[in-house]
Amino acid sequence: QLQFVESGGGLVQPGGSLRLSCAASRFTLHSRAISWFRQAPGKEREGVACIPTHDNPSYADPVKGRVTISRDDAKNTVYLQMNNLKPEDTAVYYCAVKWYSCSSDINEYTFWGQGTQVTVSS
């Protein structure tokens, strides 16, 4: 069974940091673009960051300068380093894969993780 498992979420104070991980098992991340999305209560799922097979990562405007996405294909894992977290970053964070290039269209992603909760609160 294919698995894509997120971890690293939790409760953090404003200004704090978290590092999310997304580990794939039974399939390879090679030749795939991986995105992090998030969904806050009552809101639509939105893209946060994406790292393609080649080229540079891309970031959503609300997180630019605070978030870094990276990948380790040898470990079949993608990371999302989030710094200077704000209450508006509170959401369930999901990783998702598609072939080769990034897209903001969630329908283009073929496989999703189960999500990890990030709560930013004092």
Quick description:
This protein has 122 residues and is an all-beta fold. 0% of the residues lie in helices and 49% in strands. The protein has strands spanning 3-7, 10-12, 18-25, 32-39, 46-51, 58-59, 67-72, 77-82, 91-99, 111-112, 116-120.
Structural summary, described in words:
The protein is mostly beta strands and 122 residues long. The chain is 0% helix and 49% strand. The mean pLDDT is 94.
- The rounded Rg comes to 13 Å
How many helix segments? 0
The general outline is globular
The profile of the biggest β sheet is: 7 strands, mixed
- Terminal CA distance: 39 Å
Order of helices and strands: EEEEEEEEEEE
Task: Give the amount of beta strand, in percent.
Answer: over 45%
Low-confidence spans: none
Notable traits:
seven-stranded mixed β-sheet; 122 residues; four-stranded antiparallel β-sheet; 49% strand; mainly beta
Topology:
Elements: E1 3-7, E2 10-12, E3 18-25, E4 32-39, E5 46-51, E6 58-59, E7 67-72, E8 77-82, E9 91-99, E10 111-112, E11 116-120
Parallel strand pairs: 2-11
Antiparallel strand pairs: 1-3, 3-8, 4-5, 4-9, 5-6, 7-8, 9-10, 9-11
